[in-house]
TrEMBL record:
Listed name of the protein: Glycosyltransferase family 1 protein
Organism: Bifidobacterium callitrichos
Keywords: Glycosyltransferase, Transferase
Alphabetical list of InterPro entries matching this protein: Glyco_trans_4-like_N (IPR028098), Glycosyltransferase_grp1 (IPR050194)
Lineage of origin: Bacteria, Bacillati, Actinomycetota, Actinomycetes, Bifidobacteriales
An example molecular function term from Gene Ontology annotations: hexosyltransferase activity
Positions of the Glycosyltransferase subfamily 4-like N-terminal domain: 63-253
Amino acid sequence: MGVNTVVPPARRGDTAFRLGFVTVIDTAPHPLSSIQPPTHQTAYEERKLSVLVVSESSLEQTNGVSGSVKHILDRFSERGFDAHVISPQPAPDDGEYDGFNVDTTPSWPIQNFNVAVPTKTSVIRLIKELPRPDVIHVAAPISKLGHAALIAGEEMGVPTVAIYQTDVAQYARRFVREALDGVVDGVIPKHTGWLRKVSKASGESAEQIVGARIAQMHNMATLTLAPTTQAAERLESFGVAPDLIRQWGRGVDSWLFNPRRRERAEVRQLHDKWSGGTALPVIGYVGRLAPEKQVERLAALDGLGMRLVIVGGGPCEEELQELLPHAVFTGMLHGDELADAYAALDVFVHTGAEETFGQTIQEAMASGLPVVAPAAGGPLDLVSDGRTGLLFNPDDEEDLRSCVERLIEDPTLRETMGFNGLAAVKSRTWPALVDQLIGYYRLAAELQMAHAA
């Protein structure tokens, strides 16, 4: 996209204004799929920005929210941007990440996830005491922490960019009682009224309560970024205004995750160990072992000619070990160990049908693996059925088994799909994706000024 490129509209009709490095023409609404993110190639012709990053996940936890925030901060550091972070406890040991200060708020563990439980007043006060940022980045707003950040942005006249990452409403529909039972009525702070309200609901009622809260949050933001078209449609179904939504995906570390690792002696030995010294293919899952990930689906693969490996940890680990007694459980892996684990697999299986994106799918594709995933949510945008992997009916575990069996029996198809998947993600690097994000920051700033005029 060059200096004179026209990008699709922000809001309102028939006005044009300068966005630093692009011209934005605001006309009639366009479908989300036509909205292209600003290019990263010219974003840094403008001054460096100061960004307040408010994350609903502690940077000390391993999940998609904290992982994305860390990659964003890494890129900020490379480009000389200024940033400050507010997240739930626990805090980094030295109170910093990559040289950026990290303030933390009280939190409470629910299903091994530290949910922020501050008062909104305390967060708003903290934000107003900090140096005024150019933009407030709110990662996965759902608690009082994210809500307070959006309120502070409104009161200060600072643009806010909200990142939609987790379908908490769907999780609430299926798992709310299991997750909150005995927690909310215990010692969790009494000011967390939204949690108490959800805890007394179930099924569709819980989903509607959380969906309304998500809509409330994202309608307050200057812009909302959804990772896939499916996620954007989900936001609209909650009541988020379509003209607030743009699409922004996630990057993948192609230096860490790549098929060249297969040539390493350590990886070959790992594959041999997992296959039991046989020619049987190794089928693997990578991710949290939590109810919403539906890892128990892998029991449908019992009896196939393969070895099953489960990489990750979480509250369901013991239960899954009993259900899948012949599987190898590695526990949580990071860095090179995680990348080697991907490289030692022959097929990657993603089980959760409620993902807004599916970062492990991208990591598997970057590792040159064919992917089997449910035809629902994020995988619909990430997996090209029959080309980079196979999509199964999320309501039919026999279909899951059939897809895996097809790949087990056809090494050539595995290789072809792995090659196609690698080609599909090779341009999705984190630096490129964060540079696009910064383009959206600038768009949000212009929108803020336009609406204030």
